[in-house]
Design goal:
Helix content is about 25%, strand content about 15%. By secondary structure, the protein is an alpha/beta fold. α8 packs parallel to α9. The chain is globular, with a radius of gyration of 22 Å. It starts with a helix and ends with a helix. About 50% of the residues are buried.
């Protein structure tokens, strides 16, 4: 069913106008010989998907055939990290090539946020725009909901999606007036095109169509820009709770709602790759599939899985910050290969800059190009001596190197019991609460032999401990540390609203 047919009657006129605008967009002149050397980039960013939630990373509860094929045609990254295990912070790092603390985006912004990603920061889209790329973002933005901070102010030609997480809403229609269920403290959820709200109340059926709508927009964008290089960013709303799936995929896997949702995301990948093939763009397009953080474990059967990795979303352990990543670029990335070289989402911006022969931002970034790792150059080591994984509320909690991980004293959240098989979900507001656990002393873990972080080797590797603590001090000097009341010399301010900016909100 198409986007128009799937929508409710009350939004048909608005979406019809949107569709007419999209499908009558003028075609660009033929790609020049110089442009032909500029690879297209498609960046798919899934929300709250765990390390073990897709076939290439060991999932056997349901099938992900298109991602399996993408892995066979490309390369899997088994030690790929995010800057933060929380939505907005993670996305700011991806977009800017900086640790999120450097650009002052923490946690998950909501409808009350009066700040966002600073317009002075340089995004991947702006890197691409400098080389003549068409750019689009279809999905969840979550870096500021005011027009000043939306994608169209950050280098994107086109935007269609939600400004923040899909649970920032009053709740399902059936529960909004149920006296037994506590109402959620949010206004109605808006769907935005460019900077205009085209649907002020995204409800259940519309949530179910989000994956399909994002995919339809992506296909249209590729078709309309096949004659010039393009950057397509697809930050999907799923598998963040509340889980929704279109009618065509409801119950399709027989393995539950979460499996159905992943199956539809996998379908989306297949649609994108089919569109590239139909337009003769397969060999000139890099596709990156990765996620913003690990699974939100407290939602039981509506949560993903980190596999053997420790903990999940919202923690500095590997289950929170190590994410499943697949990259495919036929004839450039070696097919059917795997790398365990330490890489991060902050490395995507400088890698795209190198691929497109663009200049890096004038200001300092933390990422480094991983193009040689991607293309399978032999004997590649990590481009990072250390990565601060991660800052929470300004506190440095953990640090990674290629082979080791230093976890600093901090308090983290953990489930009291395993609830993965329990039928919990947001349709009735249910989840299982976390308990706070205090990590009282420094721990050192061997990432080659103990990636589930069970054996502290700080006493048997004092020289490694000293080196990692030295790296930690360097990061504290650069980015600060609220626990030790340090102010970092390299921190830049987030974008803030003027009185005029605030009046321009939808």
């Amino acid at each position: 069913m198409s986007l128009l047919a799937a929508n409710t009657n009350r939004h048909t006129a608005k979406l019809l106008a949107m569709a007419i605008c999209i499908f009558t967009f003028p075609f660009i002149e033929n790609r020049s010989s110089a442009d032909e050397a500029s690879p297209n980039v498609i960046l798919v960013f899934i929300d709250d998907m765990g390390y073990a939630d897709i076939g290439p990373f060991g999932c056997d509860r349901y099938e992900t055939p298109n991602l399996d094929k993408m892995a066979r045609d490309g390369r899997t990254f088994t030690d790929f990290l995010v800057s933060s295990a929380v939505c907005s912070a993670s996305r700011s790092a991806l977009m800017t090539g900086c640790c999120h603390e450097r650009v002052s985006i923490r946690g998950a912004l909501n409808h009350n946020a009066n700040h966002g990603l600073a317009p002075s920061e340089t995004t991947i889209a702006e890197i691409c725009k400098s080389k003549g790329y068409a750019t689009a973002c279809f999905g969840k933005w979550h870096l500021g909901h005011h027009p000043k901070f939306l994608p169209t102010s950050q280098g994107f030609d086109e935007y269609f999606g939600l400004p923040y997480s899909n649970d920032m809403w009053p709740g399902p229609v059936a529960t909004r007036n149920d006296p037994k269920i506590k109402p959620r403290p949010y206004p109605t959820l808006p769907l935005i095109e460019q900077t205009t709200v085209i649907d002020l109340d995204v409800v259940d059926e519309e949530q179910g169509n989000l994956t399909k709508w994002y995919t339809e927009h992506a296909i249209s964008f590729i078709d309309r820009n096949k004659e010039k290089p393009f950057f397509l960013y697809m930050p999907h709303s799923m598998v963040h709770v509340p889980l929704y799936v279109s009618k065509e995929f409801e119950g399709k896997t027989g393995a539950g709602l979460f499996a159905d949702v992943v199956n539809e995301l996998d379908w989306s990948i297949g649609q994108i790759r089919d569109t590239l093939e139909r337009n003769g763009l397969t060999n000139n397009t890099l596709i990156i599939f990765t996620t913003d953080n690990g699974p939100w474990l407290s939602y039981g059967s509506h949560a993903g899985s980190a596999g053997e990795l420790r903990e999940g979303k919202g923690t500095s352990f590997e289950g929170g910050v190590r994410v499943p990543t697949v990259m495919c670029w036929p004839e450039t990335i070696p097919a059917g290969t795997t790398t365990d070289t330490l890489c991060s989402t902050i490395d995507i911006l400088p890698t795209v800059a190198e691929m497109s022969h663009a200049s890096l931002p004038d200001h300092k970034i933390d990422g480094r190009s991983i193009l040689q790792v991607m293309t399978g150059e032999p004997n590649q080591k990590s481009v990072h001596d250390s990565l601060p994984i991660y800052y929470s509320n300004g506190q440095l909690q953990a640090l990674r190197s290629e082979d080791f991980k230093l976890v600093l004293p901090h308090t983290y959240r953990s489930l009291e019991k395993d609830v993965h098989g329990v039928g919990l979900g947001p349709e009735d507001g249910s989840s299982v609460g976390y308990q706070n656990v205090e990590m009282k002393k420094v721990a050192l873990f061997d990432m080659n032999n103990d990636r589930n972080e069970q054996r502290d080797i700080s006493q048997v590797k004092p020289e490694v401990l000293a080196e990692m603590q030295k790296f930690a001090e360097q990061w504290r000097a650069e980015l600060g540390d609220s626990l030790t009341k340090r102010t970092g010399v390299g921190v830049r301010e987030a974008g803030t609203l003027t009185a005029e900016d605030a009046r321009l909100t939808w």
